[in-house]
């Protein structure tokens, strides 16, 4: 009964057809990670693993008040400690140029993470703000000395209690991240007259980033040139922000992140650890490494805001929605921070004549919160998808049927078409594979010994972003290909996916393609975020590969000895390492033969301009295209989650025992890594559903559980087999039909768990996490 449906299906075809010859599509296959062996054997290096002669080690000292000023500093004991090289505070640190004020209206101001001018001010903006860096010959010496640094403060009143700050919340300005409030018809009026209604309050707690690799930086100055290894999912932003802070040209800064041990948005901005490592290296003239402790990550890197949300639904007795209200309050920091546009997906989910979505944010003196996997939808979907389940119960209607009845043909708010959307197909496939028809709607109707068994569903929804990206593709006379781009490998198999795309575009085997990434010396890549990296890079890869093929054909067509002599590009195809006339796959010539005979060692295709003006033009074109697309379509990845839980009737402990997610994510590039990515989202969602919660002392604003000992994330034994299916139909509006699937997996998960728990127990939990005390 707990077997995942996927495990009953025939095994995927092995990766050795097509991909090994360049004859058939590599895209879509479950190709093994091209870097798998290097990763699992420890051969790849992470940001804190780069050796350097005379490497010094840094560690942070954190403020212990929520708001105020430093009145006295005593670094004497720390400076005298064994192995200490320097103790930097606002009294002696070299000055950095402060970040521009953080604004939700300007994405680039979110790059610094906060507006604090670290070690350039005596002001404290949150409990945990870094106020000193200790640099020593060893990590242990730095950490021991850090405990000897003493600060005295004058405190000023601080807002640290989210619950108490609700009334001070202000509407969010419309921005790229938060689309702003919206209304259609008279949502509240329709609620008053609807035959069946639910009107509920849901809450979700603050959550923190817990990537396997805590944030780490290694920085080396050589005069005014700077090399930084950084656990970043945003290399270009990091380089530009460092250039601004340290007053050196970006061209003199090289930021590298060959591999990143997990990044879920927490490594998308430039946080104190990175800045202060670079500052420490400049101040000491040494190469400095700073691998943050887990506690320092919690204190200096934003996480997910808590939310209080209201969802009100009205429907006719047949289940047809007449109104949908989704409003509420999240948090932001006085020193900046993004927010969670938790109500934004509710504009696009269900057909309804009346709709009201709104969002306010309260400003607190806490570490500014930041992007965390599906910011907005991850927690907004908990509220709206729980409410849909509550409405189904009120109506006495199956929750899948209720969703299908209200599936919109066009965007409910603006009337735009969806670029593609087949939630009906996803639910139908999921219901069949999960055995949904066997569900008895009655709560507490299914038991397994002392366990109450429940089944729940919820919809996943996420709108992937796109970013500008440029690449270089070099085809060499031995038939091998090198793709270079400063994109990021945060653990998802990004270079494997791009290898497959290159292989198909040029008609070469995957094994002929080498990918180099994670280095700002390469052409500028996108942020690894917003579920946008793969599609953003793919668009550039396709263009560059077209260039390469054109250049190769140019060599052949002017060569009377070539079977491609005088052939036109549009009549030529690529495959099995060759160009050939359309319809004659055994004709034509191999790339190697063409290049070798022409005496050309390699042909390069690349996108993007080399001049500053050219780059600005490219950015402008990109933005124009993005805005045009937004006016034309709603582009979203969607999915249907099916969840089974067993709740211990004695202890109230909830175990997730079966999961099936069916997704509509456009074209899937790699069947193996895509499933893995979607599973990862579901696992993170199960953590949010059952255990994750950052505990902030409301009196002091201090995070009280800054580490994995007390902040509970799922371990392997907590996770059942997770079945993943996808519809695998290309989106007609994107290059290759890709949408992006990094974040959609987590959305809807907490609601599916809570809905299953209600089915198991009859208890409706509207406050996450769903800990046993809430069920007893
Ligand atoms: Mo994601 S929150 O854009 O890494």
UniProtKB/TrEMBL annotation:
Protein name in the entry: Xanthine dehydrogenase family protein molybdopterin-binding subunit
Transmembrane annotation, as ranges: none
Region (Disordered): 1-33
Annotated organism of origin: Streptomyces lycii
Domain Aldehyde oxidase/xanthine dehydrogenase a/b hammerhead: 41-157
UniProt keyword list: Molybdenum, Oxidoreductase
UniProt-listed Gene3D superfamilies: Aldehyde oxidase/xanthine dehydrogenase, a/b hammerhead, Aldehyde oxidase/xanthine dehydrogenase, molybdopterin binding domain
Entry keyword Oxidoreductase: yes
Compositional bias ranges of the Basic and acidic residues kind: 1-16
Pfam families xrefs: Ald_Xan_dh_C (PF01315), MoCoBD_1 (PF02738), MoCoBD_2 (PF20256)
